[in-house]
Amino acid sequence: MFESLQQNLSSALRSLTGRGILTEANMREGLRQVQMALLEADVSLPVVKDFMATIGQAAVGERILKSLNPTQQLTYVVHQELINLMGPVDHSLHFRGEVSVLMLCGLQGSGKTTTCGKLGRLIKTRGRQPLLVAADLQRPAAIQQLQVLGEQLGIPVYADLNAKDPVTLCQAAVRQAKAQGANTVILDTAGRLHVDAELMDQLTQIDRRIGPDQVYLVVDAMTGQDAVNSAKAFNEALELDGVIMTKLDGDARGGAALSVKAVTGVPIKFVGTGEHLDSIEEFHPDRMAGRILGMGDVVTLVEQAQEKFDKEEMEKQQARLQKGQFTLVDFKKMLGQVGKLGPLQKVMGMIPGMGSLTQMMGDTDAEGEMTRLVGIIDSMTPAERENPTKVIDPSRRRRIAAGAGVQPHEINELVKQFDGMAGIMKKMASMGIMERMKTVRQLQQGGMLNPSARLQSKGDTGKRLTKQERDKLKKKKEREERKKKREDRDKKNKPDDKNKPDDKNKPDDKDKPNDK
Amino acid sequence: MGLFEKFKQGLKKTAQFLNTDIRDIFKGEGRLVDDAFLEEVFEMLVRTDMGIEASKELVADIRESFRARVVQMEEILARIKEKLKVLLAQPAAPIRFAESGPTVIMVAGVNGCGKTTSIAKLSQMFIADGKKVVLGAADTFRAAAVEQLTIWAGRLGAEIVTGPSGSDPASVAHRAVAKTLESGAEVCIIDTAGRLQTQQGLMQQLTKIHRVLGKQISAAPHEVLLVLDATTGQNGISQAKHFTEAVNCTGLILAKLDGTAKGGVVVAIRQQVGLPVKYVGVGEKAEDLALFEPDSFVDALFEDMAGR
What we know:
The structure holds two protein chains of two kinds.
Chain A: H1 2-19, H2 24-40, H3 45-60, H4 62-65, H5 70-86, E1 100-106, H6 112-125, E2 130-135, H7 142-153, E3 157-158, H8 166-180, E4 184-189, H9 197-210, E5 214-220, H10 227-238, E6 242-246, H11 256-264, E7 268-272, E8 280-282, H12 285-292, H13 298-308, H14 311-322, H15 328-340, H16 344-349, H17 355-361, H18 366-378, H19 382-386, H20 388-391, H21 394-404, H22 408-429, H23 433-449, H24 467-493, H25 500-514
Helix pairs in contact in A: 1-2, 1-5, 2-3, 3-5, 5-12, 6-7, 8-9, 10-11, 15-18, 18-21, 21-22
Chain B: H1 3-17, H2 21-25, E1 31-32, H3 35-46, H4 52-66, E2 70-71, H5 73-88, E3 103-108, H6 115-128, E4 133-138, H7 145-156, E5 159-161, H8 169-183, E6 187-192, H9 200-216, E7 223-229, H10 235-247, E8 251-255, H11 265-272, E9 277-281, E10 289-291, H12 294-301, H13 303-306
Parallel strand pairs in B: 3-6, 3-7, 4-5, 4-6, 7-8, 8-9
Antiparallel strand pairs in B: 1-2, 9-10
């Protein structure tokens, strides 16, 4: 999208730059593209309009109009302004001395309870003693849900199945926290609509009686135009201190982040990026700006890679490679590591410039392909995995194919692919970092143009001879035979000419097979 | 209270939250349809979450039909509503019941969109019709999801089939159908764990549940309902696409329509994926489920903008 935005901008501006002058009127088409991109990303309309007004001023300013590349300059300004709007960041939870109270609120289904668990875990890893409070008395089994999460995390949960009033429950919870030595209380309140006066009033009651140190609004990243309405209402009722955006692991562009920040003015602290309890990250405006505009997010990818790749395993592999060892077992481990990063298309989408490739991939099932390869490797014996090229014969190939549920020729393809990779891997292990990068680049280029091609052709194994060599050898043999015949004939003709020719012939015969 | 009344009630609250500028457009003796006017109409449409494409199309139609004329608000709105009503028109009967034997309904959606509550509401409706309902708690992943549905089943008087946490959801679904056949119930509703449509592994799991349902009753599931949160923006289209690819959805339940969100994305979904809305959720109680009526829905989309 960012790329298409840039393309649209270029085409809109190309005709203009030709004339040498860029005016506000000329700029309008470019700005319209920006506006559409933001609306498509679910940024609320009033926020988009304000944003466009700011950008509009910047866009007709001297800097852009006189720059050599107005398109780039404009996208830069848009990106920068998005970052400014969503920043500054403040990841601190502002803990106080004795007992800090954090309160989570939001619409139904925005992810409060899960976030409560995630925050609890995060706080615990920072050396504090959290207490989770099940203050959602509305939704059936919400209390049990928090209890299960607490159990999984080893974090105490304050709950009262018979409680009727969340306000008194929260008060009791804070007392309990002091009594049992917990220093951070997280209140998980019930989801409610911002237009439900009664329930909003209840929330203000909790706020007033407990006086939480921090009040966070939990917002679903998929929220559309309505984000401004709900965020505004919650902020008016509670004076929010921060926002936590959830479900950012999907393909939502998350324009709501901009909307919510714009109407509440409070920083976005964290983002939820998965269903697992460790899937919470600090919010970074620059990455979010890229996401809203559909630009790649390499930083997150690298971070994820570092986190998900098993460091020890990587080092082991590296060591093996340096010794020139690379087998199908290593290949499978590599596949597994890549798979951990998530759906390949998502991974590709995070790499700038790969966005369009993601679309091209379309129906090709990259995950399926990987599972298939792993299946084939799993169907092999250890010996076959160690040395597939030498060990696998047609009969073994048939057995592996049957085991993995694929066609025999697919085994060949895998082995060929592996052969190519193994060669490169071994070569790379002995290279310096610069050479390595160069090789990877070459690899990518080759791969892009012809993904199914073998990565490297097989060299001379020393077993087979070329046609010329075979011909040469044949001629030599014939020559020798002729010579022998001639000598035999001579012997018959001159029987008295003793053993001399025989002596000459014998060493010759011995030398020939080794002769090259 | 009729559906339209319910909508109106909800939207009265909405009015407090909307700026008044849209209504101001049409003050006085009518407006000239020029670029500025069309831009304002576009903005009005975008606010409903119907998306840029659908909005542009409607604006183009207005431009063609009314360009350079002086118009009243009512004319323009009537035109837009008419177009939308034609687009959203659908047969009245929402659930396709099995010709003989029990009807199996599968419910899916992203996390927190309101699946379990919607299932409770559906059950309440079927039970009120005198049908016997079996629920299959196939959300074995989320903490206490099974308990949540069990509490509902107890309140509504539906039977429920559950499995231990973390067990294979397809096996729970299978047993739920078996239980339905055995007990002679008319309806079986399968709850599934919430999942984002981009999680391929989980989407495959959903496909498997769908497949397993068809093993005991060949036409099952008779309905696959995707629950969509009305506050969802353009991501709703991606949800509809991917879930339909995985389990061949037959319709939508538009949940949480009692807030200020208008749920306009269903217009884009109808256009691009073809899925009709079957029911709308308008509250937290079991009876807060209404049949989707395109005409009332379209009227409600612009309710706060037409009034003066």
